[in-house]
Design brief:
four-stranded antiparallel beta sheet, Aspartate Aminotransferase, domain 1, binds pyridoxal-5'-phosphate, single chain, Aspartate Aminotransferase, domain 2, 2 domains, 7 strands
Amino acid sequence: MATGVLLAPERRHALLAWARRRDAYVIEDDYDAEFRYDREPVGALQGLAADRVVSIGTVSKSLAPALRIGWLLSPPALTAPLTEAKRIADRGTPTLDQLALARLIESGRYDRHLRRMRTLYGARCRTLRAALAEHAPKVRLTGLAAGFHAVAHLPDGADESAVIAAARARRVGLYGMSACRASGDSEPPRLVLGFGDVPERAIAEGIGAVGDLLGHGRGSKGTSI
Ligand SMILES: Cc1ncc(COP(=O)(O)O)c(C=O)c1O
C-alpha cells in the first residue's frame, strides 16, 4: 500500500549508498508519480543512480489498467537478463497497443491528457480535504500530495470495521487499511479514501454523510455520537 510518504533527500542518498556497498539494486515502483498536486513531480531515484536503480512505470493509472502496458528502465548490466525473463514469462506485449501508445506520446496528446487529469484529480483531492475539514476536523489525513487516495487516521481505539459497516448502512463505501496490510492487522485504525473515480459532488455528499463516524470512530448507526 503506497502511503504517499516522500523519501527525504538524505534517505535517498543513504539507500543508494547501501545499494552500492552491497552490490544490490533498488526497485523504484514509480507508478503514479504523474499525479502530484502540491508541486512538480519528484525526480526519480533512477536519475541519481542509473546503474543501481530499476525504475518501473505503468499506464495503468494514467490510461487504463486493462492495457497492461508498462516500462522498465534498467541498469545496463540487467537489460539482457530482464529482456529474456520477460520473453519467457509472457512471450511479449501486443505490438499494436504499444505502437498506439507511442503515437499518443509522440504527438503530445499523452502529456495533454496527464495535465487535464491532474487538474481533475487535484480538484477531487481538494474537495475531499475540504469535506473532511468540515465534517470530521479531528481526523488526520496523510498521503494527499499525490496519487488517488488519502489515508485517514481514525482515533486510537476506533473500530475500523464497525466504521465501515456503519458507513455502508448509510450507503457510503469505505475501505479499511487492514485489507492492505500483509498481516491483516486492524491496528492502528485507518481508512483508505480513494477519490480517483468519484465526482466532486459525490465526495462532498459521501463525507458529509459519514463525517461523524470518522471523527468518533465508533461506527454508530445513523446519529452523531
Ligand atoms: C504499488 C503499485 N505499483 C504498480 C501498480 C501498477 O501495476 P500494473 O501496471 O501491473 O497495473 C499498482 C496498481 O495499482 C500499484 O498499486
